[in-house]
Amino acid sequence: MSEPVFVRLDGVTRQWNGAGGVRDVSLEVPRGAFVAILGPSGCGKSTLLRLLAGLETPEAGRIEIDGREVTHLPPAQRGLSMVFQSYALFPHLNVRENILFGMKVRRVSRDAREAALARATKMTGLEGLERRKPAELSGGQRQRVALARAVVSGKPLCLMDEPLSNLDAKLRHSVRRDIKALQRQLGLTVIYVTHDQTEAMSLSDTIVLMRDGRTEQIGPPEALYHAPATPFVARFIGDPPMAVVDGAALGVAAHPVGIRIEAIERVPLNEADIEAEVVETEYLGARTQVLLHHPAAEGLALILPDRVPLPPGTRLGLRLPQEHRVRFAADPHRNHAPHPPLPGDRDGHVADPNPNTHPEDQA
Amino acid sequence: MTDSTRQLQQMARRRQAVHGWLLLSPALIMLSTFAFYPSVATVWTSLWSRGTRRNPSEFVGLENYQRLLDDPTFREVAWNNLLYAGVTIPVSIVLALVMALWANAKIPARGFVRTAYFTPTMLPMIAAANIWLFFYTPGFGVLDTIGGLFGAPSVNWLGQPETALWAICAVTIWKEAGFFMVFYLAALQTIPEDLREAAQIEGASRWTYLRRIVLPLLMPTTLFVLVNALINSVKLIDHLFILTKGGPSDSSKLILYYIWESAFAFFDAPSAAAMTVLVLIVLGVGAAVQFRMLDRRTHYR
Ligand SMILES: Nc1ncnc2c1ncn2[C@@H]1O[C@H](COP(=O)(O)OP(=O)(O)OP(=O)(O)O)[C@@H](O)[C@H]1O
Ligand SMILES: [Mg+2]
After folding, report:
1. Which of A138, A314, B45, B141 yields a CA-CA distance of 20 to 30 A from A110?
2. What's the fold here for domain A241-327?
3. DSSP B49
């Protein structure tokens, strides 16, 4: 990250009666980066974005954009655009008027407006729809109008709040690619809120994982995937996420230990690190996923080649190879995580534990 | 096809027709008795002369209308009603909109403000008129008492031709604005908050947001309120009975009051009927024009 810092948050706090919101968030975003803010529902992602946009005012802390302190500036003076989760298109204006609303308000000359409109509709594939009202568009087209409205005036920073959550899975993938292409093409700095870890992994250079209003880990997707800082991150990132085992059960110190499912091996009981009980087997064609239960472990599963019939209740010996273990410090607030994520819980589709699949490829 | 089957089919069809008419009859009877018949009877009556014992009524065509146009009282009353509509409609609508915008904003005691604005609407017009009668009473009425504190002379608001109509207008506006506000308030609450935020991020001032986003989205409500206000400007005369009875010297008399007077005080049914027909025509044309004009610029969601 040799690029200069473009957006800087410093100890930003905004809460309601001492609850909710975000607490003491610090973050640095280089110019041209694609940052995903990821976390379970209610962790403060939207609040953080609205603080950046100027739709909320922080109680404490400092916000800088492009080297300028903007903590108390109104939204319009921060040089940014925003895509809302609900799109927030003006229902009585047609596509063209929606896209040009801001430029018209700012009294941009007619020629400049027309040129910008032509560019934005071309980039978002909206040509020919300029005269339609939002109600006459499909969900994906509305989404594109919202995107076009955000990029048309060339603001260098674009904030997006779960822009794909109203689209069906297929459309989500195609618009996702469009957003990424648009960001590269225009050199935008994008801060993108999502609760979908696949989306965050595939789109961003940096992920900010949030929990209960605080940042849990900030780093590139690989770092969060391979070296999660806390068991919370381990349980949130990846599909399926890591299994987390209490170190005491493995005969090491009483700290949590994380391991990716695909690294767990089945061994005879007498050589095993731990013994677990089969809960259920899922036959997936090329392999079988065995869901396992152990009193000191969470999200434990095993992947076996081909079809392996294992009645529930069977006891299996497992080896957790040293080189794949991730040791965590004791997790103080493990018990009040709002939603302990389960495999496949965050994305709406069933866990697909293919050991060869890198999360980036899971389109 | 044999004769008998054709007969059977015919019978079935006839039975169906009877069935249909039976289903239609309650609405048809009600509407005929209470809407169609009176309308037609009114038009019919307006074409006949006023009958007395010596010369019975006879068909006179449009003579009643001609007589109306020559009647100075009718002309004054029509002019009064135009003024009345011209003042009460725009003022009560603008006031309703302003109050709704205010009551919809994040202000302290919002519930109280809304209730306070709505209270006049819940009062019957007669009760409202009595309250205002107390406001207007010369000498010890509220207005005079307040005026007196600042040394203003006593004014007989309802008793002089220059002020009577305006005093009536004030009561109507007071009564209607709260009613219209409720519609605006309901409409405002359907406008999602993120439209305001989107406009804010685009750099729109509050005024621009109001003018370019809120007002257009309120257009259907405005249209509805406008038609209601137009009808009320003719229909709402209960307070005249309490406050001025149209006086002094017809200065606050409105058309419907004059129609009532003609029919039930002067027993001149044909002239009352002719006026009613004129009013209906004007109202019908007015509503049609409003719908046509505004419909083109109205966005229905
Ligand atoms: N205006 C507000 N008044 C009171 N509490 C609020 C307000 N806005 C947000 N909160 C609280 O702050 C917390 C974070 O809310 P936020 O909307 O940022 O969550 P989120 O991470 O965007 O969740 P989601 O993924 O469901 O959109 C929640 O507990 C919420 O109840
Ligand atoms: Mg949110």
Report:
1. A138
2. OB fold (Dihydrolipoamide Acetyltransferase, E2P) (2.40.50)
3. P
